[in-house]
Amino acid sequence: MRIVIGLGNPGKEYEGTRHNVGFMVIDELANALGIDVRKSKCQALYGEGTYQGEKIVLVKPMTYMNLSGQAVRQVLDWYKPDASEWVVVYDDMDLPLGKIRLRVKGGAGGHNGIKSIISCVGTQDFLRIRVGIDRPDPGVTVVDHVLSAFCKEQRPLVEQAIRNAASALQTYIEDSFQTAMNRHNS
User: Fold this and answer.
1) N or C: which end of the chain has fewer CB within 10 A?
2) pLDDT-based confidence at residue 80 (cuts at 50, 70, 90)
3) Residue 147 and residue 19: Cα distance in Å, rounded?
4) Taking residues 8-35, what's their average pLDDT?
5) What is the separation, in whole angstroms, between the first and last Cα of the chain?
6) Residue 186: its pLDDT value, please?
7) Catalytic positions, please?
């Protein structure tokens, strides 16, 4: 089994914002694997499918970013995966726009969604894929930055990063997270 959890905020007003790249990666992967992510349980939208004989669960917490851990805890309690069977995908201001980075564990790095997961799950030892959204411009608050949409010039970089993250997740599903790290971390 593989569980992929993409972080974001529910609602039309947040679609396409930097904070929702986790949702965007889930959508890209769902499309590639033919999994419908519209069922609801555990305070999340989810979809289940099979890819190359592996059960896949794609999850979008609907608790808003800062409470993501509540939904993640419920999903983990429901499916009971091993530590190597679930991964979180989220935005990261410390990475340049369009870059992705895979890690097997780490701190929250100031990300409130990850802080919530660490608090609710009780560990920071979980697989993650960070998608770079860059730092805010001078004079722009962090909140305004993460809740803003990408400008037209940024879209190609973001779309490529989303495809790269989905590709890394397919490598993880087909082989291992270590192989995905070797192929996709630059």
Assistant:
1) C
2) very high
3) 6
4) 97
5) 27
6) 65
7) 19
* Homologous superfamily in CATH for domain 2-184: Peptidyl-tRNA hydrolase (3.40.50.1470)
| pTM to 2 decimal places | 0.97
DSSP the chain: -EEEEE----SGGGTTBGGGHHHHHHHHHHHHHT----EEETTEEEEEEEETTEEEEEEEE-S-GGGHHHHHHHHHHHH---GGGEEEEEEETTS-TT-EEEES----TT-HHHHHHHHHHS-S--EEEEEE--PPPTT--HHHHHTSBPPTTTHHHHHHHHHHHHHHHHHHHHS-HHHHHHHH--
Residue with tokens 């001078």: 138
Q: Which two tokens stand for residue 173?
A: 């599903």
Residue ranges per structural domain of the chain: 2-184
Residue the block writes with tokens 């920071």:
124
Q: What is the pLDDT of residue 149?
A: 95
Residue with tokens 């429901």: 78
